[in-house]
Specification:
The complex is a heterodimer. Chain A is mostly helical. In chain A, 46% of the residues lie in helices and 5% in strands. Chain A has a domain of 142 residues. By secondary structure, chain B is an alpha/beta fold. In chain B, strands 2-12-3-11-10-1-7-4 form an 8-stranded mixed sheet, sandwiched between helices. Classes of the chains: A mainly alpha, B alpha/beta.
């Protein structure tokens, strides 16, 4: 493993939540959380730096949420808009990345916009005065202007430029005259076009007026902050309170942003974001595409997979919105299961398909890494998989990097009667060309040997018919530790500054939806410090990320013309 | 596609006028037409995790194909006269080098090579062959909607790149693909015209907004927006062609029922592959696509894909491929299924569509390949490429050839480019120029 570069926060002071921003100055070692393959920087992190803000389109989730909040329309599904895949360029940044808009994406966006515009007809009274529902011919132009001046800024999530107003007015005329649409039809037509325009599709909600430079970085304007906060914490467009704050210039200081972030985090809309974070972080969102061998797991089907994902999502949400404590992520036994899922946990008495609040057996379970969802996506089709489980802990929670696999990788032997899973993998690991990776991953993954390929607890290895050996070892914060089982491993993880720092790093990556760079290092260190100073409360961490330097400022892209 | 898709020469020929009356049109192949004037098409079908060499490559070295094809190729038995099997000289016992699949680093060998299959570059350092063919048709024959990229998994894998590192995202939803290809066929002309005019106005507006949007952006962001603009232009071209294309009599929209299937579910994967294969074949027959890629599966490890319909539920696909000879039985069955479900499905449809004195298949080159030799060695040598269809008589099929030495895959791509009328000295990394015309065409 290299590049874990843990940041302990030693010597760091943070202004997160203060009035002048999160410009934490870091002490020795404070820059180490850049895991982007470089293994961390030896230079102290620059507290005035901020990362890039690349132009990104709305993700499928953001598009659908925005359609819901903008148009009160929930008729579209994930298959109707461009989707995105996990970033596969590395193993440690799992969050889904919007790709550039390919022709098939543009075609989907066209279909989605046409569908949403067609649905607008019945709702025009909700966005225009009653007099514009069926205006006299002399009033039509005025109503169209009103649509452009009041509703278009909501679609673009910022004030429109004069040129944009001119373009839209011309577009209305094209619809009403050239295409001979009705007044209503021309309004739909404008919406259809705007929903395919960069103003709607991209996160680039620049304020009117000149850019505010601060050394080599640029401060995000009020509308940009409103949108960044909103898409970070809600996965959707700003509400009226945020728009009003942006219009009043009240999203400028860290204190102002802290007020909004705290309010938004308490809003029910934040739950979906919390769930999305944990779902993405541990890849549990891939459950629907992970089949199992019915000869081994006859009860496993799509419904059960869905129940597992729901449980995992709900678990993360309830920890953050409940105690908020990081330690609960690795120790809580409070969960909610359906009847089908209760069978995996060996719980009796749960009926129905609605999740029921449940306390899991604390001698077998504790925290998200012992939930069926995680254990299933990291399990084989026909058994456990110490490699995948260790790999997931290493890359997602420790922010560790692995060297590339060698060109020739021998297979892991198939299950054999008389040979335990552990023995099979140890044999595989003795091969010299796999030793470099597996002596890091497998000793962690062995900790989960009590759980089979769908997360059922077991005491006996089904192949060797011997008692499970779930002991293993892990190197955290530079020192090696051993543990007898997953529950003991949990304790090591939750107390490790490296795991805490990595968790903060993952939140910064999620908020920016990009890989972190050295320019983010001071912000990550500051957020980590705020997290640790707040008794490891995840809500404080999220607010610290939202008020961090790298969230409020950006480095201009090469070649960019600042306005 | 423009209205002169079938050239005057082809029409005259179809009317029974002998070739002797016709001047030789040397420009026809350059415009993507066969010597008989019918359009040439290229279809690439790919999947991952290599093959089972003993069950894929025919025994022997060169000559006619054996009466019984190797097990993996048996689904192609009815069309074996259209098959061209190729084998490079180097075998597994030779040291691995980068002669066949140019790759800057071999650390991961045959998984990263997937993006080299059609580009001829390591790390997709340039456009793929389908893109080059589509570009050529656009500039020489005003055919602007030749390209079609489809996929069968909700993944990021694609063999098609429009430029270095810029992947053409495949369409993975058969229902949406059906709508974009065939929905217009069932609409009254007035409705099609109104839709055409409306969409054109919207796309023109969007194009203008994108231009303004891009003007102040930085270099990287401009590329993102440029991609979007290219897609909008492509959409406009497709719109235009939908409004003007006259489909040949052999054009029949395929069935994509039942509707509403969830293609995230592995259980629906065989249906998805069939839908996509039928849509690809119909798009080609109907003149709606001439440079097609079909990416069937993505499994570089850890995706737990299995094949319960073949009674192969574990281990997962990647693990089977890794097992070497221990996994041959299962991997052979899987590859045979891929050939049956996708390649033979497309081939049978094209072969059944008459064109000139033969079929659409005769004027097509189908290139099938996996990303590596076999999963247990991750080797990027002896890549299991296979050609079906002669591209209007360009390739000599019904046989197997053995290359005298290890050759870069670029040379195979270059020969296919020649079959499609591109006058190029090489495809992909310019380090590997040259072609295999002399071996493959005679």
């Amino acid at each position: 493993m290299s590049g874990s570069g843990s940041t302990t926060g030693a010597g760091s002071t943070t202004g997160a939540g203060g009035t002048t921003g999160a410009g934490g100055t870091t002490g020795a070692g404070g820059a180490g959380s850049t895991t982007g393959g470089s293994g961390g920087s030896a230079l102290p992190a620059d507290p005035t730096a901020a990362g890039l803000f690349p132009v990104q389109r709305l993700t499928s989730r953001e598009y659908l949420n925005t359609a819901r909040d903008l148009l009160n329309d929930t008729t579209l599904g994930p298959g109707d808009v461009p989707n995105e895949a996990d970033d596969t360029s590395n193993n440690a940044f799992p969050f889904r990345q919007p790709t550039p808009i390919a022709t098939s994406d543009a075609s989907n966006l066209q279909g989605a916009a046409e569908s949403l515009a067609a649905n607008l007809s019945s709702k025009v009274s909700t966005i225009l005065p009653a007099s514009c529902a069926s205006p006299a011919s002399t009033a039509e132009a005025g109503c169209a202007t009103q649509f452009i001046s009041t509703f278009a800024p909501k679609i673009y999530r910022r004030p429109l430029s004069a040129a944009e107003v001119t373009d839209l007015t011309a577009l209305y005329q094209t619809g009403r005259t050239t295409l001979a649409l009705t007044f209503q039809g021309a309004i739909d037509f404008m919406l259809e076009a705007m929903l395919q325009s960069p103003g709607f599709l991209y996160h680039w909600e620049i304020d009117p007026g000149p850019a505010i430079k601060d050394g080599s970085v640029v401060q995000l304007g009020n509308y940009q902050i409103a949108n960044r906060l909103s898409y970070f914490l809600w996965g959707s467009m700003p509400d009226s309170t945020l728009f009003a704050a942006a219009a009043a210039g009240q999203l400028t200081t860290a204190a102002q942003i802290q007020v909004q972030a705290t309010r938004m985090l308490a809003d029910p809309k934040a739950k979906d974001t919390l769930a999305d974070f944990f779902d993405d972080l541990m890849d549990v969102n891939t459950l629907p595409t992970r089949p199992k061998d019915p000869n081994y797991y006859p009860m496993f089907n799509e419904t059960l997979a869905g129940d597992m994902e729901t449980e995992f999502r709900n678990f993360g949400v309830s920890v953050v919105t409940g105690s908020g404590l990081f330690s609960d992520l690795f120790s809580s036994t409070q969960s909610s299961v359906t009847q089908a899922l209760s069978a995996v946990y060996g719980i009796k008495g749960v009926t129905g398909t609605t999740p029921q609040a449940t306390v899991l057996d604390s001698t077998q379970r504790g925290g998200m890494l012992t939930l069926a969802g995680f254990l299933t996506i990291t399990g084989q089709t026909n058994g456990s998989d110490p490699v995948r489980r260790g790999h997931q802990v290493l890359t997602r929670l420790m922010c560790g990097q692995l060297p590339d696999p060698p060109a020739t990788v021998p297979p892991i032997p198939d299950p054999t009667k008389g040979v335990s899973t552990r023995q099979r993998f140890i044999t595989h690991d003795q091969n010299s060309c796999t030793l470099g990776c597996h002596n890091v991953m497998d000793p962690i993954g062995f900790g989960y040997e009590h759980y089979d390929g769908i997360g059922q607890f077991r005491s006996i290895d089904p192949d060797s018919n011997t008692a499970i050996d779930s002991s293993g070892s892990i190197t955290l914060d530079g020192s090696a530790d051993t543990f007898p089982d997953a529950l003991a491993l949990n304790k090591l993880l939750l107390n490790s500054p490296q795991i805490q720092s990595c968790f903060a790093t993952q939140w910064v990556r999620y908020a920016a939806n990009r890989w972190d760079t050295p320019a983010d290092a001071a912000s990550i260190a500051a957020a980590t410090s705020a997290f640790q100073a707040a008794n490891l409360n995840i809500r404080n961490l999220i607010v610290a990320v939202a008020t961090s330097r790298t969230f409020r400022y950006r480095s201009p892209d090469t070649g960019e013309v600042l306005q | 596609m423009n209205k002169d898709r079938f050239s005057r020469r082809a029409l005259l020929k179809a009317m029974g006028l002998g070739a002797g009356f016709l001047p030789l049109l040397s420009t026809e192949r350059a415009r993507g037409a066969t010597a008989t004037g019918f359009p040439t098409r290229f279809i690439s079908i790919n999947w991952t995790n290599g093959t089972v060499p003993p069950n894929f490559f025919p025994a022997g070295s060169a000559g006619p194909l054996p009466a019984t094809l190797p097990p993996i190729l048996q689904p192609l038995a009815p069309w074996s006269s259209k098959v061209l099997s190729m084998r490079a000289a180097k075998t597994q016992t030779s040291p691995i080098d980068c002669n066949v699949m140019e790759d800057a680093n071999l650390k991961y060998g045959g998984h990263f090579s997937y993006q080299t299959l059609l580009t001829g570059y390591a790390n997709a350092g340039g456009p793929s062959l389908d893109q080059l063919i589509a570009n050529n048709l656009a500039t020489t024959a005003n055919v602007t909607n030749a390209q079609l990229n489809v996929g069968c998994r909700p993944s990021a894998s694609s063999t098609s790149y429009r430029a270095a590192g810029q992947k053409n995202t495949p369409q993975i939803d058969p229902y949406k693909l059906f709508t974009s290809l065939f929905a217009g066929q069932t609409m009254p002309p007035a409705v099609v015209n109104a839709l055409f005019n409306r969409r054109k106005s919207v796309l023109d507006f969007v194009s203008g907004q994108l231009t303004r949007f891009a003007s102040n952006l930085g270099t990287d962001d401009k590329i993102t927006v440029q991609d979007h603009m290219d897609s909008i232009r492509q959409l406009e071209s497709q719109l235009q062609s939908t409004a003007t294309t006259t489909s040949p009599a052999t054009c029949v929209a395929p069935s994509v029922t039942p509707s509403g299937l969830n293609f995230n579910s592995n259980a629906n994967y065989p249906t998805q592959v069939k839908f996509m294969a039928d849509l690809v074949a119909a798009a080609v027959i109907c003149g709606k696509a001439r440079a097609v890629t079909m990416d069937l599966i993505d499994d570089g490890g850890g995706n737990s894909l299995n094949f319960p319909w073949l009674n192969i539920s574990s281990p997962d696909y990647h693990a089977i491929a890794h097992q070497g000879s221990g996994g041959y039985t299962q991997k052979t069955a899987i590859d045979q299924w891929f050939y049956q479900a996708s390649v033979a499905e497309v081939v049978s449809k094209l072969a059944a569509a008459p064109e000139g004195g033969g079929s659409v298949l005769d004027n097509t080159v189908i290139l099938v390949a996996q990303d590596m030799n076999e999963g247990s060695n991750h080797g990027i040598f002896s890549i299991p490429y296979l050609i079906i269809g002669s591209g209007g008589g360009f390739f000599k099929t019904g046989r197997m050839v053995t290359f005298p030495s290890q050759v870069p895959n670029n040379q195979l791509l270059t020969s296919i480019a020649h079959a499609m009328g591109l006058k190029v000295a090489g495809v992909g990394n310019p380090k590997y120029t040259g072609d295999l015309d002399s071996v493959l065409t005679m």
